[in-house]
Structure prediction request, 251 residues.
Amino acid sequence: MALFKNSRSNILLSPLFKARSFFYKGNTVNCPCCNGNFKKFLPAGQNENRRENAKCPDCSSLERHRLTAYLSKKLLIGRSQIRFLHIAAEQCLISFFGNMNPQLYVTGELEGRNCTINFSIESIPFKDETFDVALCSHVLEHVLQDRLAITEFYRVLNKNGIAFLEVPVDKSIRCTIEGSPSMSREERIRILKQEDHQRLYGLDFSSRLTEAGFAVEEIDVAREFSHEDIKKYGFDIEEIFFVCRKHKSSC
Prediction:
């Protein structure tokens, strides 16, 4: 029996949101999460972090959510009866993956009630090879022992398993910058880009994935997508999507 918990926020179904999505209806952009077509996406973020063409008027997906939906639909084609582990499950993706009719769908996060189970990804409370697919987006940068968490994802995936482990990568640096307990809040914001980040990943992030045993494919939006598709789906041109495949057993 699937442990599916549809925690889609009621606010997304409110008359205000429905009115907003109706007002923005058009044919210029498309959201892969809800498959809505609109005149444009809404802005998101504040002050220096404000981004145009970022938020879906209907499901409130952001750039990375739409990239995840777009790519996972292609990468998971032909797979059925999927056992799916979704960490810090985003509201806009819960219904998207639920529509794939997974055999098992587990949402997990460290704290909170809007998930199937609470746990730390440094110690995932499931047996080896429980899942076919794991998704963890923009969480590893918050975790003290990210390498341990990555090995945990490898452990709970079956021999044909695939993980989508997304993190914000600063393409201007080659080596990841690790934070320290002595860092002040101001230093974390200045160096690591956010006060609750433990590190700022550089272009070497994939090496942490391969250390755990994964075969890694990097899908760089800037290289892999046309300007037209980036605009149409509202992708972040700086995003790199990491597809991590578990090596098959040699037995």
